[in-house]
Amino acid sequence: MNTHILYLHGFLSSPASEKAMMLAGHMADRGLGHLFHAPLLPSEPLAAMLAIEAEIIDFEFEPFIMVGSSLGGYLAQIMAEKWNARAVLVNPAAYPYRHADEYVGIHTHHHTGEQVVVRREYFDILRQAEPARITPSRYWLLTCTGDEVLDYRDGVERFAGCRQTLLDGGDHSFPQFGDYLDQILAFAAEEG
């Protein structure tokens, strides 16, 4: 396999998240560690999109896919449509701007402990960046009904017509992620 995998973490998460580390370790064990990338994404959406695009540009036209978790899944669909790429979406935030009232304010980052300010205009930026339509062949949705943070039905609706794996139970962290690592590498190796 010579496809880069760009892991996009969720809100208040980091490249040190459990899923990112699991995927990185799995790839390293197979001699593919040099193909794993996980940038630290700022909370401000424009800055996050620029950080993702900087990684993509560094691939110098080599093949890549994205694996996006939660808000990272939303950002992955924006980039997949813009860059004609493919993405695995893990319990993605299908419509994050619908949750603005819950998230505007000050939050503590899960990994760094720093205080993060989320402004209302962040959600306007996310809404404006949303692709008007998606190309179903680009996506694989991995979601579970037990997601306590996001309504899994939003992802099922948004990514209707895409490859979907819907699991009963679980939670927002998608604890079954480790069961899908080989399938994610197979998805990355497929021609787009």
From TrEMBL:
<dbReference type="InterPro" id="IPR008886">
    <property type="entry name" value="UPF0227/Esterase_YqiA"/>
</dbReference>
<protein>
    <submittedName>
        <fullName>Esterase</fullName>
    </submittedName>
</protein>
<dbReference type="Pfam" id="PF05728">
    <property type="entry name" value="UPF0227"/>
</dbReference>
<dbReference type="InterPro" id="IPR029058">
    <property type="entry name" value="AB_hydrolase_fold"/>
</dbReference>
